[in-house]
Amino acid sequence: MAELTDGELTVLGLVVEQPRHGYELERVIEERGVRAWTALGFSSIYYVLDKLAKRGLIETAGAPPSGKSRATFRATEEGRELCVKATREALATLTPVRARVLIGLANSPGLPDKDVATGLTERLEKLRRQHEEVRAVRAEQEPLPTAATAIFDYSEAMLAADIGWTEATLAMQTSMDKYDIKKAHRALYSPSSKDFALVDVPELRYIAVDGRGDPNTSNEYASAIEALYGVAYTLKFASKKTLGKDFTVGPLEGLWRADDPSVFTARHKQSWEWTMMISQPDWITEDMVRSAVDAVAKKKENPALDKVRLHTFTEGKCVQILHIGPYDDETATLDRLHNHYLPDNGLTFNGDHHEIYLSDARRTAPAKLKTILRQPVKQ
Prior knowledge:
Residues 197-377 form the GyrI-like small molecule binding domain. By secondary structure, this protein is of the alpha+beta class. The chain has helices spanning 6-17, 22-31, 42-54, 77-92, 100-107, 113-141, 146-175, 181-184, 186-189, 219-243, 262-266, 286-299, 331-344; strands spanning 20-21, 58-62, 72-75, 197-212, 252-257, 273-280, 309-324, 348-349, 353-357, 370-378. The longest helix has 30 residues, at 146-175. The radius of gyration is 33 Å and the shape is elongated.
């Protein structure tokens, strides 16, 4: 015979205790605070009674003219035997550790910190209210028989433990210092859109993939971007889990190069060579990158994963400006940089053209795209 659900065993136990009709079952369930430790709603009582009756575990002791709602049910012999057996098993059964909050916590690295803190704070408030409600129901019924005392003791202990765990997790979440390259190097990631500015870029670390061709049509480029983001988020989750160090995944960045820099202003994209990158904190190691690549590769094949590498370099003195608008409209700004600003200030090229994509092109209108245009220079 199929096992009894928690709701079925609860209702069957109350009917075994003494014959009862639906409204009386609702009253007893409410008075004893049964809903504090079972998922049993008022509307489900009659559904459960019907199921138990169809299985021959309970039967009507008489149905008065007022209808089904006042029908009294009593346990059959088979019902009593199954209730005894199921009760013995329930006493020895461990509480399953399947709280939905654990799934939420496992997925939380993908959320902003404030959203995680808000969710945990809301959960803590609900737990405290539930704890107070259980204590109030208990106070109304005291003195209690031994079994009822044990039930309330267990409910309160579980809620108290959950409250303590949530408080500790919330404290850890809010105290964790998350690294964000845009904040750590604010001057490098918040330039003016009006004037060119000279900045000194220190040694920085990235995961990177090299390639060639038009980014709008190249499958190689699309695979590289997918690989970089997959590895970047895997590194973030691993760092938070194993090192207790969290960081915000940085914006996509690109180094663009060609034998003749004029191809950038002419937009001859098929001639472009590129290195696409995402910044990393200085505690990310080669071994961590390799492990992240392997983890991503197990989920989905991507030829670009074999090209992902940890890349550290120093750009030094650079000129940069914020471009707002479509990528193809960068031409005028680059022309000003190459043919006016650099020669007027006695500067020349000293490295790859660097672009930092502050906007998500999938969700941002072309006219509102924000891109940092950076060029390493020397006298």
